[in-house]
């Protein structure tokens, strides 16, 4: 089964299994590190999309996702926490 066809929770568990495997072996090769990086990067993108859809993503992530959509930017900046996030950068 392709990695990205699995639910995010299964991919996170896969990452945990990889870390436990590496810890048990006591070593982590560059290929192992790349494999773990791929798993985590894959699930991060999907979780970010879920957060955006649910409206729970951080303000900065929402702003990046809005791009140059003025209506979306105004809606995001109207949120109560937006001023603090924009000031921090």
Summarize the structure.
By secondary structure, the chain is an all-alpha fold.
Q: Unreliable segments (pLDDT under 50, ≥5 consecutive)?
A: none
Class based on secondary structure composition and strand pairing: mainly alpha
Shape: elongated
- Rounded to an integer in angstroms, the radius of gyration calculated over CA atoms is 17 Å
Mean pLDDT over all positions: 82
Can you summarize the main beta sheet? Answer: none
Helix content: over 70%
| Strand element count | 0
Strand content: under 5%
Distance between the termini: 40 Å
User: Number of helical segments?
Assistant: 5
Q: What sequence of helices (H) and strands (E) makes up the elements?
A: HHHHH
What topology does this entry show?
Blueprint: H1 8-25, H2 30-54, H3 59-66, H4 70-77, H5 82-88
Q: Would you write up a description of this structure?
A:
The protein is mainly α. Helices cover 74% and strands 0% of the residues. The protein has helices at 8-25, 30-54, 59-66, 70-77, 82-88. Helix 1 (8-25) packs antiparallel against helix 2 (30-54) and helix 3 (59-66) packs antiparallel against helix 4. The radius of gyration is 17 Å and the shape is elongated. It starts with 7 loop residues before the first helix and ends with a helix. The model has no long low-confidence stretch (mean pLDDT 82).
